[in-house]
């Protein structure tokens, strides 16, 4: 283990002499459905309940032992309002004694849910917490919670001299700042689809995916896309821009869940930990460009962990837009071959509230299958924030 000389980490709190750690004993997800695709007829509460039931079955724990369910969801209106976490617990048939709470840290909501779950078991407030999230973007369109409202207020708009904040515009600003061309973004998008298709064909997602009826595989992978097709797409955020729908994450439906406990509790209940949550941080940056915070979040996580990028065997940087992982690579100098090896949100989709847990589930199973010790996950979030998590395979 590394010498932890850079501040407190999750690893420093492992179960030794009464100290506690945070480990993951189960990680599952639905296939990611395309907008108006195979999952669009399923209520988000029922979609959430589906992964809760599968998590308990595959993880081998008794739902009655769950002390909280922390659930990410971005558009908490309509069918995703009134605490979708608690409703999912009830829909899953779990005991009424199991509580649930729903959080919104924008695209990183379910990654933050994992952080909260880890902090809860580390502190001794609970022994088993389920973390995850859902988003049915077919049924509750992106931005529904802000319709006919001003979520920023005059003081925020005045501070930054803008009428509002737009991630697509932020992606164009990133591309301009780092000098990315349209061709570079399209090439990145094409590679994401190719990597996801290769992983799907090899059955690499099978261990993590819980089929939903006839939907057994991720629906967003475009096997027939080409650079020529991508080059023909419009640039909706700037007339002379470089970002298109092809180099942006897909609007999607899905849910994912992980079970978080301590090594001691897992051993006492016959559960096999998949990984330890080594380090968990959150950072923030300029809210206008909005998408750059994964860069300082990564630096913060590595410093807290006492690790370097060379120690990390896989990096998952959410593909909200192609400039995000490309700028992250440019600033960190990371090994591009370790980045999003099974594709990302450009190919697989981005069901907002579920994406953090979906990405972590995919990363964990990739690490176990490839015998990788450390993995790092980070994702940009509305408001210019980013979570970063380092996990260690056991």
Automatic annotation (TrEMBL):
This is Acetyl-CoA acyltransferase. InterPro entries: Thiolase, Thiolase-like, Thiolase_C, Thiolase_CS, Thiolase_N. The active site is at residues 107, 350, 380. Residues 272-392 form the Thiolase C-terminal domain. Residues 23-262 form the Thiolase N-terminal domain. GO terms for molecular function: acyltransferase activity, transferring groups other than amino-acyl groups. It holds the Pfam family Thiolase_C. Keywords: Acyltransferase, Transferase. Belongs to the thiolase-like superfamily. Thiolase family. It comes from the Bacteria.
């Amino acid at each position: 283990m590394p010498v932890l000389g850079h501040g407190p980490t999750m690893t420093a709190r492992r179960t030794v002499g009464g100290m506690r750690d945070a480990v993951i004993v189960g990680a599952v997800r639905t296939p990611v459905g395309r907008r108006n695709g195979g999952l669009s007829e399923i209520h988000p509460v029922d979609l959430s309940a589906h992964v809760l039931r599968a998590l308990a079955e595959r993880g081998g724990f008794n739902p009655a032992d769950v002390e909280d369910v922390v659930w990410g969801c971005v558009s908490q209106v309509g069918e995703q309002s009134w605490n979708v976490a608690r409703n999912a617990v009830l829909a899953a048939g779990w005991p009424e004694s199991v509580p649930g709470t729903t959080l919104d840290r924008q695209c990183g909501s379910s990654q933050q849910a994992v952080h909260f779950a880890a902090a809860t078991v580390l502190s001794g407030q609970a022994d088993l917490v389920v973390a995850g999230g859902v988003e049915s973007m077919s049924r509750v369109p992106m931005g529904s919670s802000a319709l006919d409202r001003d979520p920023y207020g005059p003081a925020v708009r005045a501070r930054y001299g803008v009428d509002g904040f737009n991630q697509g515009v932020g992606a164009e600003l990133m591309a301009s700042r780092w000098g990315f061309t349209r061709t570079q973004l399209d090439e990145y998008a094409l590679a994401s689809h190719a990597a996801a298709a290769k992983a799907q064909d090899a059955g690499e997602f099978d261990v993590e995916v819980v089929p939903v009826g006839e939907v057994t595989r991720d629906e967003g992978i475009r096997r027939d896309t080409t650079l020529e097709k991508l080059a023909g797409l419009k640039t909706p955020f700037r007339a002379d821009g470089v970002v298109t729908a092809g180099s942006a994450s897909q609007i999607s439906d899905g849910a994912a869940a992980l079970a978080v406990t301590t090594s001691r509790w897992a051993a006492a209940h016959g559960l096999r930990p998949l990984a330890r949550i080594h380090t968990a941080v959150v950072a923030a940056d300029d809210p206008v460009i909005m998408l750059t915070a994964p860069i300082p979040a990564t630096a913060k996580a590595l410093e807290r962990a006492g690790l370097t990028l060379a120690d990390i065997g896989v990096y998952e940087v959410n593909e909200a837009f192609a400039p995000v992982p490309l700028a992250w690579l440019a600033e960190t100098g990371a090994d591009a071959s370790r980045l999003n090896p099974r594709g990302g949100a450009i190919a697989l989709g981005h069901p907002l509230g579920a994406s953090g847990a979906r990405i972590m589930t995919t990363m964990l199973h990739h690490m176990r299958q490839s015998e990788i010790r450390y993995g790092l996950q980070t994702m940009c979030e509305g408001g210019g924030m980013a979570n970063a998590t380092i996990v260690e395979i056991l």
